[in-house]
Write a structure and sequence with these properties.
About 35% of the residues lie in helices and about 10% in strands. The chain has about 220 residues and is of the alpha+beta class. Strands 1-2-4-3 form a four-stranded antiparallel beta sheet. It is globular, with a radius of gyration of 18 Å. The termini are far apart. It binds flavin mononucleotide.
Length: about 220
């Protein structure tokens, strides 16, 4: 019997870590193909291996596979996404988003597609405050392990307007703090490469604003 407390690394997660990290990007268009329970178990095992404050392990994940529940969540997700845009740039419909805002246009498309994705994972902490942020390394493990299996994902957030309804929909107690929702599915399209600031711009050496020894 496998000792769940001391899981060995699974052979299926053999993608080189560099490739997983450097090609991990937001996938917002998914094939309808289902994700198997074995794959989901691997992904959740990877999430559960993450570090946490005091090894308290406060992260909890709600894996939603039921079509009707995903559809219902998708409605709330779309409402939340547009609530954020209304409060931010003041956009209320897709035509308001400037053509140059490619990320927002893609994100608006995901807001429409969320109700049809194969799987949604909701990430919570059962502890509030700093320790609760231990959810974030667990989420990163989840994203990277999905990537290693060829499964796409995007970290997404919700809006206070919809939170009570989301919690009620899945019987989540008020004591659990929501962190993010993650759609999962095989990508329509490629993972490709990511466009990020060079680390020479985001890294300081010994003192603030002092450059590191690389360009
Ligand atoms: C904290 C956080 C919140 C995010 N929220 C959303 C979101 O609500 N909707 C969405 O479509 N993408 C969301 N993203 C994904 C980012 O937009 C994406 O990682 C970023 O634009 C880089 O895109 P790329 O991975 O395609 O290079 C979020 C990412 C992070 C880390």
């Amino acid at each position: 019997m496998v000792d769940q407390l001391r899981l060995p690394p699974p052979a299926e997660l053999a993608l080189p870590i560099g490739e997983a990290m450097f090609t991990l990007r937001a996938i917002r268009k998914f094939k309808p193909d289902p994700i198997g329970d074995e794959q989901l178990e691997l992904i959740m095992n990877a999430a559960s291996r993450a570090p946490s404050g005091g090894n308290f392990q406060p992260a909890r994940f709600l894996v939603i596979r039921d079509r009707a529940r995903i559809r219902a969540f998708g409605e709330l997700y779309r409402e939340a996404w547009w609530a954020k845009r209304r409060e931010g740039p003041g956009w209320t419909r897709v035509e308001d988003i400037p053509k140059s805002e490619k990320t927002f246009l893609a994100a608006a498309q995901l807001a429409d597609e969320m109700g049809r994705v194969p799987v949604v994972v909701l990430a919570f902490s059962v502890v509030r405050g700093d320790l609760g942020h231990s959810v974030l390394p667990a989420v990163q493990n989840l994203l990277l392990s999905a990537r290693a299996l060829g499964i796409g994902s995007t970290l997404t957030t919700l809006h206070d307007d919809v939170m009570p309804r989301v919690l009620e929909m899945f019987d989540v107690p008020d004591s659990a703090q929501f962190y993010c929702s993650i759609p999962l599915g095989y990508p329509r399209g490629r993972f490709g490469t990511t466009l990020r600031r060079p680390s020479s711009e985001t890294t300081y050496w010994d003192a603030w604003m002092q450059p590191p020894p690389w360009r």
